[in-house]
Design brief:
- By secondary structure, this protein is of the alpha/beta class.
- It is built from 17 helices and 13 strands.
- Strand 8 and strand 9 form a beta hairpin.
- Helix 5 runs parallel beside helix 13, helix 7 crosses helix 8 and helix 14 crosses helix 15.
- It is globular.
- Bound molecules: pyridoxal-5'-phosphate (PLP).
- Pyridoxal-5'-phosphate binds next to helix 7.
Length: 492
C-alpha cells in the first residue's frame, strides 16, 4: 500500500464513523443495487423454491424448467455475443462431452480404489499439458509434473501455497512476499489474502507489460515468487517473461507463468508462425505454470492444470494427515471429494481435439482477432491498449467507454468492462470465428460509438456503476458494494 492509499484508508475509517456519511453511502448503494437486482434475478417471479418441497417434484417438470433456463441462456453465447466464457461451443463437441460427463457422473478421484480411471485421466491430462509446455523436452527428464484443479484460480492458489510452504521449510521465510504485476489476475491477490503472503505490486509500462526494473527492485530476502502472465486477462499482453524469469533464477526464487488464458493458444499460435515469445519451461527460470483446460483447452467448466518444474515443489502443494481418526487421508488439491466426471471430460476433450484440432481452432481465432484488431484501429474514437494477440482491449479519449459498453449491451453483446484505465475487452473464441460474427461485432461497435457520440448523457446500465467505482476514492467502500452484490446473488 502506498502513502496515498494509506491516507485514504485512514480517511475512510474516520468517515465510516460519521452516521451521515454512512447513510449517504447506504442510500447510493441501495439505489444501484435495486437496479442490479432486477437484471440479476430474471427467474425470481416465475420459479422459486426457497425451501425443500414437501413432496418431490416430478422429474419431467424439473427437466422442463431447467431446459427453459438453459435455452434462454444458450441464446446469449451460442451466436457469439459474449467475450470469452464459452470457448468452443459447437453442438457435436458439447453432445460428446455431455455423454462423457453422464458416463462418469458418479466418479470421485478421492476414492482412487473405486475409480482408478479418474486417476489415469488426471495423470494423462497433466502429462499432455506438461508436454505441450515443453516440460520434459527441455529438462530431459519427466520431472515437470502437476495436478488437475477446478479452474485457473485454484491452480494459481495451489502454486502460491506451495511456494509459501516451500520457502518456510527451505529458507525459513516467515513473512513471505510475492511480486505481482498489477495486471495479473485477481487470483494472486486472493492468494495473498488467503495465505498471508504480502503482495508487492509492480506497475506496467505503456505497452501494459510488467516493468522489469520495478520487479528487480521489489525483490528482497522475503520474496518467495515472481509472477508473469501469458497473457494477462485485462489486456491480453504477455509480460517480459524471459527477463523476469532471469531475475527469479538469479535470486533463487520461484517464477510462476500464469498461462490460464494462453496455455492452450500460445503453443499453437507459435507453431502457426505468430510472433510469440518463449513463455514456458524452455525458460530455465520458470518453476511453475497454470493453464486452463476449461478455457481454450475446450473442456467443460471445472478443470485447469497447475505444473511444477520438479516433484519437490509439488509436494508442498499436497495435503496429508496421518493422525485423523477418519484414517490416513491425503488429497492433492483444495477440495476433498471431486467431480471425476469433469476430469474425464477434460481427458476426452484433449484426445478428441488433438494437435490438429487445436491448431485449426487457434488459426481461426487468430484470424478473427486480426480482423477485429484492424477494424477497431480504424474507428477514430477508439484505440487498442498495447499490442495484443487475441484478447483485445480498447478505450477512448473522447467518449465514456462504459456508455459504449451499455450501447453494445442493448445490441445483446456481453463484453467486459475494465478499469484503471477505463477500457473494454473482448476475448476472441471459436464462437466469434463463426461466419459473420466478427463483422457484426464491428458493425454494432461502430453504431454504439456513433450513438454515444450524439447522446453522451443516457442513464442506466453499467456506466454509472463503473463511474461510481471510479469516483469513490475509498476502495473499502467499493469492496462493500461488491459484497452486497454477492449477497444479491444468494437471495432467492
Ligand atoms: C490470465 C488468467 N488467469 C487466471 C484466471 C482465473 O481463471 P478461473 O476463472 O478459471 O478461476 C483467468 C480467468 O479469466 C485469467 O484470464
Amino acid at each position: 500500500m502506498n502513502i496515498k492509499e494509506k491516507a485514504l484508508q485512514i480517511l475512510e475509517n474516520t468517515a465510516k464513523k460519521i452516521p451521515a456519511v454512512n447513510r449517504l453511502l447506504e442510500k447510493e448503494y441501495d439505489k444501484l443495487l435495486a437496479e442490479i437486482e432486477k437484471s440479476a434475478k430474471p427467474y425470481k417471479d416465475s420459479v422459486s423454491y426457497p425451501i425443500i418441497p414437501e413432496k418431490g417434484i416430478d422429474r419431467a417438470e424439473i427437466l422442463k424448467t431447467m431446459t427453459d433456463f438453459q435455452q434462454k441462456e444458450e441464446n446469449k453465447w451460442k451466436d457469439g455475443f459474449v467475450s470469452g466464457a464459452v470457448y468452443h461451443g459447437d453442438h457435436e463437441h458439447i453432445e460428446f462431452l455431455n455423454k462423457v460427463v453422464a458416463l462418469n457422473s458418479q466418479s470421485n478421484p478421492l476414492h482412487s480404489d473405486v475409480w482408478p480411471s479418474a486417476g489415469k485421466y488426471e495423470a494423462e491430462i497433466v502429462s499432455m499439458t506438461a508436454n505441450m509446455m515443453n516440460g520434459s523436452a527441455v529438462t530431459g527428464k519427466d520431472e515437470v509434473c502437476g495436478a488437475v484443479s477446478s479452474g485457473g484460480t485454484e491452480s494459481i492458489m495451489l502454486a502460491m501455497k506451495a511456494y509459501r510452504d516451500w520457502a518456510r521449510d527451505k529458507k525459513g521465510i516467515k513473512k513471505p512476499e510475492m511480486i505481482v504485476p498489477i495486471t495479473a489476475h485477481a487470483a494472486f491477490d486472493k492468494s495473498s489474502q488467503y495465505f498471508g503472503i504480502k503482495m508487492r505490486h509492480v506497475a506496467v509500462d505503456e505497452n501494459y507489460q510488467a516493468k522489469v526494473k520495478e520487479v528487480k527492485r521489489a525483490v528482497n530476502k522475503n520474496t518467495i515468487v515472481i509472477v508473469g502472465s501469458a497473457p494477462t486477462f485485462p489486456h491480453g499482453i504477455i509480460d517480459p517473461l524471459e527477463e523476469m524469469s532471469k531475475i527469479a533464477r538469479k535470486r533463487k526464487i520461484g517464477f510462476h507463468v500464469d498461462a490460464c488464458l494462453g496455455g492452450f493458444v500460445l503453443p499453437w499460435a507459435e507453431k502457426l508462425g505468430y510472433d510469440v515469445p518463449v513463455f514456458d519451461f524452455r525458460l530455465p527460470g520458470v518453476t511453475s505454470m497454470s493453464a486452463d483446460t476449461h478455457k481454450y483447452g475446450y473442456a467443460v467448466k471445472g478443470t485447469s492444470v497447475v505444473l511444477y518444474r520438479n516433484l519437490e515443489l509439488r509436494h508442498y502443494q499436497f495435503y496429508t494427515t496421518s493422525d485423523w481418526p477418519g484414517g490416513l487421508y491425503f488429497s492433492p488439491t483444495f477440495a476433498g471429494s471431486r467431480p471425476g466426471s469433469l476430469s474425464a471430460a477434460c481427458w476426452a476433450t484433449m484426445l478428441s481435439v488433438g494437435e490438429k484440432g487445436y491448431l485449426e481452432a487457434t488459426k481461426k481465432i487468430m484470424k478473427t482477432a486480426d480482423y477485429i484488431k484492424k477494424a477497431i484501429a480504424d474507428i477514430p474514437e477508439l484505440f487498442i491498449l498495447g499490442n495484443p494477440l487475441w484478447v483485445i482491449s480498447f478505450g477512448s479519449n473522447e467518449l465514456d467507454i462504459y456508455k459504449v459498453m451499455d450501447a453494445m449491451s442493448k445490441r445483446h453483446w456481453s463484453i467486459n468492462g475494465l478499469h484503471k484505465p477505463s477500457a473494454l475487452h473482448i476475448a476472441i473464441t471459436l464462437r466469434h470465428a463463426q461466419k459473420g460474427v466478427a463483422e457484426r461485432f464491428i458493425k454494432d461497435l461502430k453504431k454504439s460509438v456513433a450513438e454515444v457520440k450524439v447522446q453522451p448523457k443516457t442513464k442506466g446500465g453499467m456506466a454509472p456503476i463503473y463511474g461510481l467505482a471510479a469516483s469513490i476514492p475509498f476502495r473499502g467502500a467499493v469492496g462493500d458494494l461488491l459484497k452486497r452484490y454477492l449477497d444479491i446473488l444468494y437471495k432467492v
